[in-house]
Amino acid sequence: MLHRSARRPHFFYTTAPLPCPYLAGRMERKVVTELTGPEAETLHDRLSRAGFRRSHNIAYSPVCAGCQSCIPIRIDAARFMPDRTQRRVLRNNAGVTGTAVPARATAEQFALFQAYQRARHQDGDMAAMGFYDYRAMVEDTPITTGLIEFRDASGRLLGGCLTDWLSDGLSAVYSFFDPALEKQSLGTFAVLWLVQRAAEMGLPYVYLGYWVPQSRKMAYKARFRPSEILTGGLWRPLEALDTMQEPVLAPAQSR
After folding, report:
1. What's the longest Cα–Cα distance across the chain?
2. How far apart are CA 40 and CA 7, in angstroms?
3. Does residue 29 contact residue 14 with C-beta atoms inside 8 Å?
4. 220, 215, 224: which is closest to 249 by C-alpha?
5. Strand positions, DSSP E, 129-243
6. 69 within 8 A of 213, measured Cβ to Cβ
7. What pLDDT score does 8 carry?
8. How far is residue 174 from each of residues 14, 169, 191, 248, measured CA to CA in Å?
9. β-strand pairing of 205-211 with 169-177
10. How many CB atoms are closer than 10 A to CB 13?
11. pTM above the 0.85 mark?
12. Which pLDDT does position 253 carry in this prediction?
């Protein structure tokens, strides 16, 4: 008698080309798959280590023809040492408290999210999100997710970071903060907070998504050292690239 596995097949799909959000004049395509069912957590873990990111209940990775500018990057939390600029960020935010809360959308969060989008990404798709869109982004997930809320001494919400809990680390999904406090570098502070929390939990990594050296708004991720990047199917120390020319960093041809 033949044994048939009860596990359903898992499908991956490729999206249609769309304008690249990071590099002007280029198009992007993604390979995507649904995170659903009792194995969603395990699948998300495996895909994160393979360089995928999560949005809602979808995991995705760029597969752009002729371009390898999006490089998965993760911080070595146990060995991380803040540089002089990052130490200054920590001092400037000494009165800010980070608290992990359940992934539940609130009107307070959404108001801050809207202000951030209007100030920083007015032309982006997320600027048009209503409260129910925001709630779906926060709550529509089959895996372990939470929000880190950052508040000052008076309890005022200054920023938030949607974060996934993985078996080997924390993954920063999306962060936002009060645009009036840009000089406090709350985005950097949020990453530093995640690194400290991961180290306290005995988790080796903080996943930052994609490092895009040619994109000003994505290049900052390389400032967190030591870090690892995924190239050629292997996680390698980012520091090793400082003394060598790596083809993956070269600009891709326009298309």
Report:
1. 69
2. 12
3. yes
4. 215
5. 145-151, 157-166, 169-177, 205-211, 227-231, 234-237
6. yes
7. 62
8. 23, 16, 11, 25
9. parallel
10. 11
11. yes
12. 35
In the structure, how many helices (H) and strands (E) does the chain have?
6, 14
The pLDDT value recorded for residue 141 is 93
Q: Hey, what are 115's tokens?
A: 């202000």
Phi, psi of 42, deg, nearest 5: -65, -45
Q: Which residues contact 23 (CB under 8 A, 6 or more apart)?
A: 67, 69, 212, 214, 215, 252
Contact 103, 147 (CB under 8 A): yes
> Which CA distances in Å does 228 have to 73, 105, 174?
6, 32, 20
The average confidence (pLDDT) of the chain is 91
The two structure tokens encoding residue 172: 């920063």
Calculate the CA 141 to chain-centre distance.
Answer: 15
End-to-end Cα, the chain, rounded Å: 54
Six-digit token pair at 164?
């996934």
